[in-house]
């Protein structure tokens, strides 16, 4: 997704037609055997969505706690439950879905790759860009697939967005505004510094990915943050400038729910997402002459959307590819490089770095 070569004129009304999403039916994806590494909340949502919308097989689950893996297997009728990650990656599965807390993503991905297994790693693929590069390099060396499970990137509306940007439908993109905040109950892992808590990796990955996918690498960055008593950062705001003069603004925080809004401003038109921009849903394109184009997509949450990433991964692995265009290793690295720069200004570090 890039706007670097976009034109700056406003297309005449008769040419203003939205492209159609090219996302295939998830049921048509070749069937792979999946192993779930880390049976937490997101692994449950992934399993529910994959079971409902694809023909993929959830064949095994692994946890460092035998009781947790057995409970997950019983709840979702998974044939094999293992009491260690090592047993899981050695089992008869094609691809490992890594769904541990953030600061264990890298080690789990390396474990799976060393066992000869393809990996889909929950976002963020690592806690920093160096970990993301290491996963990419190890996968490349082994000829294995590796990708970040940033499920938003696989939704139909973002395929439409890519086509619009490639066609220059918004003109030259000058501004991206994006934010994401949520409320979490006390005791949630997001407040735990030992688990790389704070909003940046959990929530901030979504707006930062949107910004870096559209505008690339920032040449200037100014960030401010507020810490919480638990020892994690509680809120971050940042403003960025890019080599072509474009700017971006991001906010992410743990204090309460926000609209999770995003807008992309171009010299020809402005695109505004409905509701939570990182969930399934529609968007509008507004032209200066009052013309409005609508992309309609049923609103939904993880159940309606996570299956798209599983289907895309299955298609890529079946075709012998080691990456997916929707979320390339380079894109994951670029987002984490920006997160690293923000943390550098705020003095935030994560365990194991």
Explain the overall architecture.
The protein is an alpha/beta fold. It folds into 2 domains: 13-21 and 156-299 and 323-346, Dihydrodipicolinate Reductase, domain 2, CATH 3.30.360; 26-152, NAD(P)-binding Rossmann-like Domain (Rossmann fold). It is 32% helix and 23% strand. It is built from 10 helices and 14 strands. The protein has helices at residues 41-53, 66-76, 85-89, 105-114, 129-142, 156-166, 199-202, 205-215, 302-318, 329-346; strands at residues 33-37, 57-62, 80-82, 95-98, 118-122, 146-149, 173-181, 218-227, 233-242, 247-253, 262-266, 270-273, 283-286, 292-295. The strands form 2 sheets. The protein has an 8-stranded mixed beta sheet with strand order 8-9-10-7-11-12-13-14, covered by helices on one side. Strands 3-2-1-4-5-6 form a 6-stranded parallel beta sheet, sandwiched between helices. Helix 1 packs across helix 9, helix 5 runs antiparallel to helix 10 (329-346) and helix 8 packs across helix 10. The longest helix is centred in the C-terminal third of the chain and has 18 residues, at 329-346. The two termini are 30 Å apart. The model is unreliable at 2-8 (pLDDT under 50).
